[in-house]
């Protein structure tokens, strides 16, 4: 196994844990900062402690943890281990192992998710879907929140750079939702290491080298303090590293001081220290050396019983020389190396044959732990071995069924290295790439795909490798580069592997949608023209065409939807694909039906893909199901954050911002939209940029700031009036016109509207025809406006876009009243107000009420607006609670902790004039009934 390079114990003495009251030389400021972070109510519930090896991270964590426990906090601890970084959820298991009763008390789905992740649930069928990783994160959040209800909680994660990816994903998910909870995460990692999920906007305390004064104080406190030239050499070589100061001083006071101190040279400091520790092995009895090697080869932090079993054949007195040499430390029945570098020194000082023999011994003793056994067998292999490769493939399969995609990919990658045949090795590498896709690490996926290409000429495997890399590449921010790569490979496979080429073009079409670059449409059409047509490829061809150019062949694509829907009936992921196509074609009712069917099977079929996943939320927005839209956004944002896929998170943030604007929370909408814009390059992601401008425009309209609204919405079109994005820009036309008439920009807006109408021509959907008509009505001279408004309302199908329809009804009613046709204005006003109330579109409710009063309608707003004083998120929580969901179930839907849900309810009840949860259903039902009656 490789060197375990974890954190170092840089205390004032070489023991692993400093004793209470022992001073920390040169670390008082850092220790004080950590105490304050844990003991106060910090705005940031996560604190990172970073530093090089030997800088004292573990010692600081120990001090903070002991103080927290003494003050009544519940402390949960885990320590990363290189040898366990390939075991899915191993770090999370360490943390939650002391909480069996709390895990048993979780809601059934959350409990099952945790148990499946730990391999403790019912046997999982080989073909079963992986557990919902976000549900595991919700379960962790629920556990921490429940513990926080009893006492403050401190979660300590040491050597986090060696924690497995699945655990880090679950913990980072929870960490982003701990605001307001009495829970603090204290995480230590080596500087320079990338920690997925914890590398953005997290307060970080960096341990710098000790200054010369502190370094000398530390040397003064050693049992035999070095002096003179020896001290100077130690200070020079240690460079302020506390562990180096302690160990170099120890070496210098050995029998031969000159030989005990390594000479200065280009070797890294850790290599110098390893030499010192390795020198301690000289003269140890053979049985002691063998026992140390077994301990070094295992290094299993969370299996002390297994460690004891593995070392049972070592005599008890074998450990005494190692303890006397300062290499190991006994804590009760368990033995630990004093420092990770000691473990590394012991392991690498042994011969390769001795290391392999140690791993064989451990593999034999770990027959009941097949995953650990497989890795030990792999470490014992001097060369290719088909049987061990097969063991690792089985380990990967188990990891994948538990949702440990990173662990599965690592196991498959090692299995490929051990496979004797190149073809088998290539197959395993493609499988590894397929698993690595779900980690969000594109560089790793491309590395695995490239390695597969060096091992085979098999066209199907080469095509599969390209497709796997493409699956993840489309979700990144590098749209121009990714598009070129996908289409170049597709062109090369067009003759030999047309099916794979079509897969790649389907991905390239998604990139085209994100980027909005028109040259990419022509490139896709060019390659599509070279591919043979057959019935089996009709769905993918339609997808590539509809995504990259939805309007030019709209009727043809719509005619395929019934057949594609029927073929996807039993496959939720295919239903989502059909739904996205329908949404792109402005067939939103059909899209929503497809999404609803897919989500009905969610728990049976597992997680759904996220490619163009923003379409799901947009369809729910357009259909007037705003709470479901926000739930979809919450999930996509969580997935994007967990996988480091900023583009997916940005897409969802723009939809969420739009709903917030419609509901009247303009500040939150602006914050969401601005967040999305910071995550993307607007020239690479024109779709997201336009969505963000539309959201900012809606927020400005909600505030009545029409100048700002026009400026934002105008940015959805180029300087000469062309759409910035071929699909996302057109829905902004009517709002652009509404802002234009209030800011004296009629001429500019009219030019844009007419250019769009010309470009769409007969290909415009009924919805876009309605939006164009509304825009023309707003921009027309008053005596010419009515026909346009009537045309925008003429098609009954437009009722499926209730918010847009209500806006047009309100525009028509305002025009009628201003033409003194007050009686005629009342019906559209009544309809508009009813829709706005049902949707909860507060700014438009207020505007419609004002118009209604001006038209002589008796409008009362107290009862219908019972929820108006609540924020959109509070309204969403109230509605879910009214349906009978518990706090935990609501939290599961919205990815919030039960405490956060409880806090929102507590603050909402007085505003609603109620005192009990049981009153919510009557309140909501009564509000809707009265809103309909008075509308």
Q: What can you see in these coordinates?
A:
- By secondary structure, the chain is mainly alpha-helical.
- 63% of the residues lie in helices and 4% in strands.
- The chain contains 48 helices and seven strands.
- The strands form two sheets. A five-stranded parallel β-sheet has the order 2-3-4-1-5, with helices on both faces. The chain has a two-stranded antiparallel sheet with strand order 6-7.
- The chain is globular.
- The chain starts with 27 loop residues before the first helix and ends with a helix.
Write the layout of secondary structure elements.
Blueprint: H1 28-39, E1 46-51, H2 57-70, E2 74-79, H3 90-96, H4 100-104, H5 108-117, H6 133-150, E3 153-158, H7 165-175, E4 183-190, E5 204-206, H8 212-220, H9 228-238, H10 242-252, H11 257-260, H12 269-279, H13 286-298, H14 304-310, H15 319-324, E6 328-331, E7 334-337, H16 340-349, H17 352-365, H18 370-379, H19 386-401, H20 405-418, H21 422-436, H22 442-453, H23 459-473, H24 479-493, H25 498-515, H26 518-528, H27 538-548, H28 554-567, H29 572-584, H30 588-600, H31 602-605, H32 614-623, H33 626-643, H34 646-663, H35 666-679, H36 686-703, H37 706-714, H38 733-741, H39 746-760, H40 766-779, H41 786-794, H42 802-818, H43 822-839, H44 842-854, H45 872-882, H46 887-894, H47 898-912, H48 920-934
Parallel strand pairs: 1-4, 1-5, 2-3, 3-4
Antiparallel strand pairs: 6-7
